[in-house]
Design brief:
Elements: E1 3-10, H1 14-21, H2 24-29, E2 37-41, E3 52-59, E4 62-74, E5 78-85, E6 90-100, E7 103-113, H3 117-150
Antiparallel strand pairs: 1-7, 2-3, 3-4, 4-5, 5-6, 6-7
Helix pairs in contact: 1-3
């Protein structure tokens, strides 16, 4: 099972970064390249432990749906979501926020297993792991830009 770890330094408070990362609205904004949108479950506001969201997006040229559930929430240090239904065999995405030097180190750990046995393993090696790494890094970069612009503002659920 591939594990992708991406670290992003953000010059903003841990609480702000944490809230932006669990905002459904911000997720949509930071994944505009894949036209990601929430189409079921929690579709606006801040995710909480136990919440489920159904995402629809274009990945690798195809429209896909994925259902994710937040299984752990330790405010403002980390939250964990898992895939309940979707294209992967399984995944666990841990979002960590470490307060450091007046800012926040945001760490995404994406632990996944591709479907289709050895075909999925081959897909990981050929393109999927690289694709997912770029997707996670691009979203983190956009979230960081938004956090740095929003420093001092409050993020509220809707």
């Amino acid at each position: 099972m591939p594990v992708i770890i991406h670290k992003q330094w953000i010059n903003a408070s841990r609480q702000l970064c944490f809230d932006l990362a669990r905002s459904v609205d911000v997720h949509t904004m930071t994944t505009s390249g894949t036209k990601e949108k929430a189409v079921g479950g929690i579709t606006k506001g801040l995710l909480e432990e136990g919440d489920t969201v159904i995402w629809e997006a274009f990945h690798l040229g195809l429209k896909r749906r994925l259902t994710a559930k937040v299984i752990e929430m330790d405010k403002p240090d980390q939250f964990v979501d898992i895939m309940v239904k979707g294209a992967f065999h399984s995944f666990t995405h841990t979002h960590q926020f470490v307060e450091k030097d007046g800012g926040t180190l945001m760490i995404d750990t994406f632990d996944y297993k591709s479907p289709f046995g050895w075909v999925g393993i081959l897909a990981d090696k050929l393109f999927l792991e690289r694709y997912m790494t770029k997707f996670i890094a691009a979203r983190a970069k956009e979230l960081g830009k938004l956090a740095e612009k929003s420093q001092g503002m409050s993020i509220r659920g809707g």
